């Protein structure tokens, strides 16, 4: 099965911003009923027969992130614009993703990357860019699709909150406010 990433909206039945209850039902719908894994945790993650792990993260009763763990088989693929997130070597994936958007090395973990405009994160436990036999570093181990603001620092979160507050929007609607009575 192909899972086509559609940032910032979601993937398949999992939609960023949906309620926790809806997210749990959507996650459950992605289970392969012919091969249910003992590792499945309702409301948290499911493992498909290919080894693909699909995990959800909810906060304030809404879905804020969807994470995929690298499958061991080829029957499930996580795709973005034709790029198979787990079949391409990490270095090549970053390079090819760079054709669509900016991709930055994670400041805290240089083996991992973030495409902030797409709200996609790519993780691997360490970099082994030149060692194809070292799969855990040569390929990404997980891909995360998140809600806007998920990667914000506390300062960025405060700025985002200020930009989306009713007072800020009212100021945008009336840019000349505060200029009444001023001489030109």
| H and E string | EEEHEEEEEHEEEHEHH
Average pLDDT confidence is 83
Provide the low-confidence segments as ranges: 171-184
Percent of residues in helices comes to 10-25%
Trace the largest sheet across and list its strands: 4-5-6-12-11-10-9
Which strand-content bin applies to the residues?
25-35%
Radius of gyration from the alpha-carbon trace, in angstroms: 20 Å
Q: How does the major sheet shape up? A: 7 strands, antiparallel
Helix/strand/pairing category: alpha+beta
Number of strands: 12
Distance between the termini: 65 Å
Overall, the morphology is globular
Number of helices: 5
Overall description:
By secondary structure, the chain is α+β, with helices and mostly antiparallel strands. Helices cover 22% and strands 26% of the residues. It is built from 5 helices and 12 strands. It has helices at residues 20-29, 90-97, 135-138, 154-164, 166-173; strands at 2-6, 10-11, 14-15, 45-47, 53-59, 62-69, 77-80, 83-84, 104-105, 113-115, 120-123, 142-146. A hairpin with a 3-residue loop joins strand 1 and strand 2. The longest helix is centred in the C-terminal third of the chain and has 11 residues, at 154-164. The radius of gyration is 20 Å and the shape is globular. Mean pLDDT is 83; it is low at 171-184.
What's the layout of helices and strands?
Elements: E1 2-6, E2 10-11, E3 14-15, H1 20-29, E4 45-47, E5 53-59, E6 62-69, E7 77-80, E8 83-84, H2 90-97, E9 104-105, E10 113-115, E11 120-123, H3 135-138, E12 142-146, H4 154-164, H5 166-173
Parallel strand pairs: 1-7
Antiparallel strand pairs: 1-2, 2-3, 4-5, 5-6, 6-12, 7-8, 9-10, 10-11, 11-12
């Amino acid at each position: 099965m192909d899972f086509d990433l559609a940032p910032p909206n979601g993937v398949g039945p999992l939609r960023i911003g949906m309620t926790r209850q809806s997210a749990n039902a959507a996650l459950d719908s992605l289970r392969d009923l012919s091969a249910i894994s003992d590792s499945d945790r309702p409301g948290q993650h499911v493992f498909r027969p290919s080894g693909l792990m699909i995990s959800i993260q909810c906060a304030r009763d809404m879905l804020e992130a969807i994470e995929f763990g690298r499958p061991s088989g080829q029957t499930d693929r996580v795709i973005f614009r034709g790029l198979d997130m787990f079949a391409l070597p990490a270095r090549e994936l970053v390079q090819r993703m760079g054709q669509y958007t900016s991709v930055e090395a994670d400041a805290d973990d240089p083996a991992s990357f973030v495409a902030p405009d797409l709200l996609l994160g790519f993780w691997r436990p360490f970099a082994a860019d030149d060692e194809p036999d070292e799969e855990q570093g040569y390929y990404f181990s997980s891909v995360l699709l998140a809600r806007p603001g998920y990667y914000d620092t506390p300062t960025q979160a405060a700025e985002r909150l200020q930009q989306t507050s009713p007072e800020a929007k009212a100021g945008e609607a009336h840019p000349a406010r505060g200029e009444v009575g001023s001489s030109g």
